[in-house]
Design brief:
single chain; 278 residues; 10 helices; TPR_rpt; mainly alpha; ubl conjugation pathway; E3 ubiquitin-protein ligase CHIP
Length: 278
């Protein structure tokens, strides 16, 4: 066995040891094992992502980011690396960058294993991230709008004071005009704030079974749309029929509902995922 092969074998054993430590919540020992494996074979991505996961468990987000970036350099298609990097960036309040990484992880996860546990987990974190991004930007815009509104109101009051002092005998007319201007100003700013008001999710964007917004909508021959995972579970455990029409239905008859999927994305893009996710 050559030196390279011996190093690779030793590194793999260290990975196995690290996994054992990790399962026992001995994250420090696991980090040491993965670090030794990396020293022996620095070009194996899984050693970096395994160590990053240990850092994540210890809330050491700076090291999570470092290890994930190294893993992505070695293999840009690593779902876990993009996922953990996204979480690390969110911890640094870099919402846009974090969301991009989570979206990349979601796209890769759907391509590799559409029904895998990681897809749902990533989707939930992406939902939270988009809501936080909306919340931060909304708060900032609300503060800016309120400051501008107060400045405009102050300017109107000052103008009203000057007009009143110069229009003796016409004070009532000046007051009426001032009140009308304040009312108009209020309507303008209320309209400007509408886009930051969380919207109710339209019924047609929600699965009839889960009542939650669609993740992966599919349509049946009868024209009903369901969440893919939910309808497949129904067909498997309840029976091969449409839950609402009771017509016979096979998994092969389910077709992605691209129109609803695009509508969901448009709604989320506009409203910034303006609803809470548990």
């Amino acid at each position: 066995m050559g030196p390279n092969a011996a190093a690779a074998k030793q590194a793999e054993q260290l990975r196995i040891d690290g996994n054992t430590y990790f399962k026992k919540d001995r994250f420090g020992a696991a980090i040491d094992a993965y670090t030794e494996a990396i020293t022996l074979c620095p070009n194996v991505p899984v050693y970096w992502t395994n160590r990053a996961l240990c850092h994540l468990k210890r809330n050491d987000w700076e090291r999570v980011e470092e290890d994930c970036r190294k893993a992505i350099q070695l293999d840009s298609n690593l779902v876990k690396a993009h996922y953990m990097l996204g979480l690390a960036l969110l911890k640094r309040q870099e919402h846009a960058k974090g969301i991009r990484e989570l979206q990349k992880a979601l796209d890769l996860g759907r391509g590799a294993d559409p029904k895998g546990y990681m897809v749902e987990e990533i989707w939930q974190e992406l939902a939270k991230a988009k809501y936080l991004e909306w919340e931060c930007s909304s708060t900032k815009r609300s503060w800016e709008l309120q400051s501008l509104k107060e400045a405009c109101e102050s300017a109107l009051k000052e103008r009203h004071f000057l007009d009143s002092s110069q229009m003796e005998g016409f004070v009532d007319d000046a007051t009426t005009t001032h009140l009308e201007q304040l009312e108009a100003l209020g309507k303008i700013f209320n309209k400007a704030a509408e886009d930051d008001t969380p919207a109710e999710i339209p019924d047609f964007l929600c699965c009839k079974i889960t009542l939650d917004i669609f993740h992966d909508p599919v349509i049946t021959p009868s024209g009903h749309t369901y969440e893919r995972a939910v309808i497949l579970e129904h067909l498997k455990k309840v029976g091969k029929f449409d839950p609402f029409t009771r017509q016979p239905l096979q998994p092969s008859q389910l077709v992605p509902n691209l129109a609803i999927k695009e509508a969901v994305q448009a709604f989320l893009d506009k409203h910034g995922w303006a609803y809470k996710v548990d």
